[in-house]
Design goal:
H-NOX domain, five-stranded mixed sheet, Arc Repressor Mutant, subunit A, alpha/beta
């Protein structure tokens, strides 16, 4: 991502998003020390430029904010604060596109230069233009908050790019898990947020794809894309091994590949793979556990039995799966299911 990485975690996010969170926290009376407690970050990080933050440190700051604020709906405010200019060259590249599909293509290509612990995927609805948000780390209240904030951010940016035609644009956000007890704030243009869904997404009527964009400036467009390409090339050496291992593990549902197997698939020695992952501040076991936990949570929302899920995830029996799941989440698969239905 950026030239310097601070904090803990295999994945990264631009410090611009931490700065925005700190502004929101300040307005609620949360001081910087409390916001960054346990994150391994110094307050001076908020004064640095061209810095990326390890995902664990960032999510710790989000958790600290949530502990004081206690309101998931604050993510809406957080998302709306992230205007086009706060997304660096990616924001300018999207703004100065010829069309909505072109702006979306830039988002898919360059999002990792800003945050790489989420992946974006096009939805397949015939009547809606949908962007699916796929967390690349374990689900948690903090991650849920971040996903909602990012989807509101995308929703807000779409209105800024489209201008007046978006005044009554009815977007739709889907969230996993239950809705908060407090009612949702009023949303613009008849938009809605749906809970207890299978995945995170934001979508618009498909007609939005045909809306012409009038704000394009060719010179700014070329400059922004060139800088995005530069940042993407610069980010690839630090992201490449982690992302390649994650991709291999995601394709291995039902198996339990050893690090030797993954190294062979990536045409490198086990020692080289371990060394490269260590340089990216993560380990093979960390990535394997993250993928398995995310897949386990998804499967536990289905009717499949614990025994069937254990088999699908490559465990020798349900007991070993239960022990692993409890070590990740602090609860058993049965307790997790009970929480999801309450």
């Amino acid at each position: 991502m950026d030239t310097e990485k601070l904090g803990r975690g295999c994945h990264t996010i631009s410090s611009d998003y931490l700065i925005s969170l700190s502004e929101q926290a300040f307005e609620r009376g949360v001081n910087v020390g409390d916001l960054l407690a346990g994150s391994g970050l110094s307050p001076k990080v908020l004064l640095l430029q061209d810095v990326s933050i390890g995902h664990e440190s960032f999510l710790q700051a989000v958790s600290n904010f949530q502990a004081v604020d206690g309101n998931l709906w604050s993510a809406l405010e957080g998302g709306r604060r992230m205007t086009l200019s706060k997304h660096g060259y990616l924001g300018y590249a999207a703004q100065h596109s010829r069309s909505v599909p072109e702006a979306a293509d830039k988002l898919y290509r360059y999002v990792s230069t800003r945050v790489d612990f989420i992946a974006l995927q096009r939805g397949e609805h015939s009547d809606r233009a949908e962007v699916i948000i796929q967390p690349q780390v374990s689900d948690s209240p903090a991650m849920r908050y971040v996903c909602l904030s990012l989807m509101v951010c995308l929703e807000t940016l779409s209105r800024q790019i489209l201008g007046r035609p978006a005044t009554q644009l009815a977007s739709r956000i889907t969230m996993t898990g239950p809705a908060p007890d407090s009612p949702a704030p009023q949303l613009p243009g008849g938009s809605s947020i749906l809970f207890d869904h299978d995945y995170y997404s934001v979508s618009w009527p498909r007609s939005v794809l045909d809306t012409p964009l009038s704000s394009r400036n060719d010179d700014l467009a070329s400059l922004a894309v060139a800088r995005c390409e530069s940042e993407l090339r610069r980010s690839q050496p630090s992201q490449n091994t982690t992302s390649r291992v994650v991709a291999q593990l995601q394709r291995s549902r039902g198996e339990s590949p050893a690090i030797d197997d993954i190294a062979a698939r990536l045409n490198m020695s086990t020692a080289t793979l371990q060394r490269r992952l260590k340089s990216e501040h993560c380990s093979f076991q960390q990535l394997k556990d993250q993928i398995r936990e995310r897949q386990a949570r998804e499967l536990l929302r289905s009717p499949a039995s614990v025994e069937q899920i254990a088999e699908q995830l490559g465990y020798s029996d349900a007991s070993n799966f239960t022990k692993a799941f409890k070590s990740w989440t602090g609860c058993t698969p049965s307790q997790f299911r009970q929480q999801e239905t309450n």
